[in-house]
UniProtKB/TrEMBL annotation:
Matches recorded under PANTHER family: HTH-TYPE TRANSCRIPTIONAL DUAL REGULATOR CECR, HTH-TYPE TRANSCRIPTIONAL REGULATOR RUTR
InterPro entries: DNA-bd_HTH_TetR-type_CS (IPR023772), Homeodomain-like_sf (IPR009057), HTH-type_TetR-like_transc_reg (IPR050109), HTH_TetR (IPR001647), Tet_transcr_reg_TetR-rel_C_sf (IPR036271), TetR_C_Proteobacteria (IPR039536)
The protein's name in its UniProt record: HTH-type transcriptional regulator RutR
Domain of life per record: Bacteria
Single GO MF descriptor: DNA-binding transcription factor activity
Gene name linked to the record: rutR
Keywords from the named record: DNA-binding, Transcription, Transcription regulation
Keyword Signal: no
Feature: DNA-binding region: 28-47
Domain HTH tetR-type: 5-65
Length: 199
């Protein structure tokens, strides 16, 4: 990794830590520079503003889920097994403590700065699109009947996030990991596929 890339990563990592610790409004570019052990000038060389830095963090956060390797469709593998693998990766990603900490900062920022909402919507839509593409391939393969893959993707994401993300984000329920997650994912996939495998 080049020095420039290392410094950029150090700035992003420091920004995440500072945003989680102090919130968006409570974090300054000076704090981020100190935490990253770089000059303030270096921070501004990579990011023109705190808003731009925050947007990059959101982009990277969504990218953690979007990069799930199981999104690759395999016509020879069981649909249930493939979809369970995808769903479990998503559930594990969004219930990760680090992910949740940063997500709380992002959600709190969206409430007071609605201009971020459109950007956030565009970022999360990338995940739905990846899932919709997978479902469309399964539909084209004749293995499921999904006339609107984008709608179906939103339905499945709703099932997953209502269990693994929102309750934990709001502190309503402490998230259980491991076996409980796998069992829930299996039930979701079974219910989802049973609806779309009907003629």
């Amino acid at each position: 990794m080049r020095m420039t890339d290392r410094k950029r990563k150090a700035i992003l990592d420091a920004a995440v830590d500072e945003f989680v610790a102090s919130g968006y409004d409570g974090t300054s570019m000076d704090q981020i520079a100190t935490s990253a052990d770089v000059s303030k000038r270096t921070v501004y060389k990579h990011f023109a503003s705190k808003e731009e830095l925050f947007a990059e963090i959101i982009h990277n956060l969504v990218g953690q889920i979007e990069s799930v390797p199981e999104f690759t469709y395999d016509s020879k593998r069981s649909l249930a097994n493939q979809l369970e693998a995808i769903a479990l990766e998503i559930v594990q990603a969004v219930s990760d403590p680090g992910f949740l900490s940063l997500a709380r900062v992002i959600v709190s920022r969206l409430i007071v700065a609605p201009e971020f909402s459109q950007f956030m919507s565009e970022q999360t839509a990338r995940i739905d699109a990846r899932l919709a593409d997978w479902l469309q391939l399964a539909h084209s393969d004749g293995r499921v009947q999904i006339p609107q893959a984008d709608v179906a993707a939103e339905q499945l994401m709703g099932l997953l996030l209502s269990y693994a993300f929102w309750p934990a984000l709001l502190g309503i329920r402490r998230q259980s990991r491991g076996q409980p997650q796998q069992a829930y994912v299996k039930q979701c996939v079974k219910m989802f596929l049973s609806a779309y495998m009907q003629s």
